[in-house]
Specification:
The structure holds two protein chains of two kinds. By secondary structure, chain A is mainly α. Chain A has one domain: MetI-like fold, CATH 1.10.3720.10. Chain A contains twelve helices and no strands. In chain A, helix 1 crosses helix 12. Chain A starts with a helix and ends in an 11-residue tail after the last helix. Chain B has two domains: 45 residues; 228 residues, MetI-like fold (Orthogonal Bundle), CATH 1.10.3720. The longest helix of chain B has 34 residues. Chain B is globular. Classes of the chains: A mainly alpha, B mainly alpha. Chains A and B meet through helix 1, helix 3, helix 4, helix 5 and helix 6 of A and helix 2, helix 4, helix 5, helix 6 and helix 8 of B.
Chain lengths: 261, 294
């Protein structure tokens, strides 16, 4: 009896998740009347705006990841090493972007960094790109910090630091050649998740008026019938790819050791 | 002794401020790109265009059209959070303790990770292709079973349409969060209960659910906030035909449709208050529930 309900729950769940995926795939193949074809995909991929916005968003994702790594890894390391009592506070701060909706944050950016403010970032394209990158880094912060902090938990930060210091290493060497390689798997998990988030992000890019992939998808959705379904399949593939990469790199993660302290 | 004491004191005095310097870049970033922008909105909500303190912006929220937007937003969030919790719990229970083959569990969790991140514009496209006017399911039901969803009152651009769509990321999030909690239910508790003569129903009502309750309610709050702040899915799905709070705010930021920029501040402030309350409940309850998962 219990098994019956379990199968029923699983089956109902699978049906609900499978239908939209089948629906979008089938719809994306229907552009040519009466037969299945890849016309919608060919049309989307050949669209110069697709290439531009996709390249833009991939570039933004890479810059965001680099910035996030440079900001989060030293901070998480330093807090674990020197300021353990600050950890709950820092952890709470990194969760704030989950509490404050992205649309509110970007609204604040527009009001705070407009052309007549003390730091007129929205005045130029480069400045706006920078602002958008900071916004993405904020959105990714909860995931990035959590991933890196989990990675740091599996290594003995204090011993590694003292060993490196007694061999004459400076802070830069310790971070780049001792700590980073040790938490690389965790950093990569955070990076792939950041990539997935940035690539599909709509609200911030749209309101800051940047030519990103998210607003392009929305624009196409408002004007076309079949191409959006093809885009949805591509976007789902990218999300799936990022998650698969996280699973793959996690296999190489060191197992959490039981630490005496 | 007398020589070393001042030296040690000197060292701590010289070192203490340096420790704090290590987190300054992070705190500066958070201040500039998270705290100050949010404070700007909150303060703006209590100011008139001349910069004086006022409660008029907040009072202006209590007009029928804005209240209606908040009300439908809250209803969609409540419904999708409640259904997300129930269905997610059922699926999580099925894969953890339902006696299903073991190999199902891992792919199901991986898929949940993917689906919980498959939100925004593409998700809306997927549902338009499935439940829209010429979507897969709509057409199938109409031609094969003679059921016309539209004449039954179902419309993707409505309360139920949005709720059904949001469930696509709500259910997997619930599965991801509640599965570890279900794993944390110890076999001994169930055995102890049944030795004392408890039925399966009594075990759930008096042992398992009270232990899981903080996790359940906490996840419910998280899911609520999750759908309350969702902008992209709603805009891609409905254009701007459905007046929910995020869409209203989006239009306001774009083009000042309310005619009063400070009403936009108040609208955003209202969102922070609602998601803030939901998430405070979540964080508080998560800390409580972790006590049982040692």
């Amino acid at each position: 009896m219990k098994k019956f309900w379990a199968w029923l729950a699983l089956f109902a769940g699978l049906l609900y998740f499978a239908l939209p995926l089948i629906g979008m795939t089938e719809f994306s193949l229907k552009m040519r009347r009466g037969e299945y074809s890849f016309d919608a995909y060919a049309k989307v991929l050949a669209d110069p705006r697709f290439q531009e916005t996709f390249t833009y968003s991939v570039g933004m994702a890479i810059v965001t990841i680099l910035f996030g790594v440079f900001l989060i890894v030293p901070t998480a390391y330093w807090v674990r090493l020197k300021l353990p009592r600050l950890r709950p506070f820092i952890e709470f701060v990194t969760l704030l972007p989950l509490i404050i909706p992205a649309i509110v944050i970007v609204f604040g950016y527009i009001r705070l960094y407009n052309t007549s403010s003390w730091l007129p970032l929205t005045g130029s394209a480069t400045g706006t790109n920078l602002l958008l990158m900071f916004g993405y880094a904020t959105l990714a912060m909860p995931y990035m910090y959590r991933a890196v902090d989990t990675g740091l938990r599996t290594i003995d930060v204090t011993t590694l630091t003292e060993a490196a210091q007694s061999l004459g290493a400076g802070w830069f060497t310790i971070l780049s050649r001792i700590i980073l390689p040790n938490v690389l798997v965790a950093v990569l998990s955070g990076a792939f998740l950041t990539f997935a988030i940035v690539l599909g992000e709509f609200t911030m890019a749209a309101l800051l008026n940047r030519p990103a992939f998210g607003p392009f998808m929305q624009l196409l959705g408002a004007n076309r019938a079949y191409e959006p379904a093809a885009l949805a399949v591509i976007a789902f593939g990218i999300t799936w790819g990022c998650m698969a990469l996280i699973q793959i790199v996690s296999r190489f993660a060191p197992k959490a050791q039981s630490q005496p302290h | 002794m007398t020589n070393s004491a001042p030296a040690a004191q000197d060292r701590t005095r010289a070192r203490l401020p340096l420790h704090w310097l290590g987190v300054v870049p992070f705190l500066l970033f958070v201040l500039l790109f998270l705290v100050l922008p949010t404070m700007n909105i909150v303060i703006g909500a209590f100011r008139n265009p001349a910069g004086e303190f006022t409660l008029q912006n907040i009072r202006n929220l209590f007009t029928p059209s804005i209240m209606a937007a908040y009300w439908i937003s809250i209803r969609i969030s409540l419904a999708s959070a409640l259904l997300g919790c129930l269905i997610g719990f059922a699926v999580a229970a099925a894969i953890t303790m339902g006696g299903l083959p073991r190999w199902i569990r891992s792919p199901m969790l991986t898929f949940s990770g993917v689906a919980s991140n498959f939100a925004g514009v593409p998700l809306a496209f997927a549902f338009i292709a499935t439940l829209g006017p010429i979507g897969l399911v709509t057409v199938f039901l109409r031609t094969n079973l003679g059921i016309d969803l539209r004449s039954l009152g179902f419309n993707l651009l409505s309360f139920w349409g949005l709720t059904v769509t949001y469930l696509f990321f709500q259910i997997p999030l619930m599965i991801l969060i509640i599965t570890p909690a279900l794993d944390g239910l110890k076999r001994e508790w169930r055995e102890a209960a049944s030795i004392l003569g408890a039925t399966g129903f009594q075990y759930w009502r008096m042992v398992a659910l009270p232990i899981l309750f903080p996790s359940l309610l906490g996840t419910f709050a998280l899911l609520f906030a999750n759908s309350f702040g969702a902008v992209a899915t709603a805009i891609a799905l409905t254009g701007s035909s459905l007046s929910i709070v995020p869409i209203l705010l989006f239009a306001q930021i774009r083009g000042d449709v309310l005619g009063d920029p400070h009403l936009g501040y108040a609208l955003a402030f209202g969102m922070i208050v609602v998601t803030g309350i939901a998430n405070t409940i979540y964080i508080w309850l998560r800390a409580r529930s972790e006590r049982w998962q040692k």
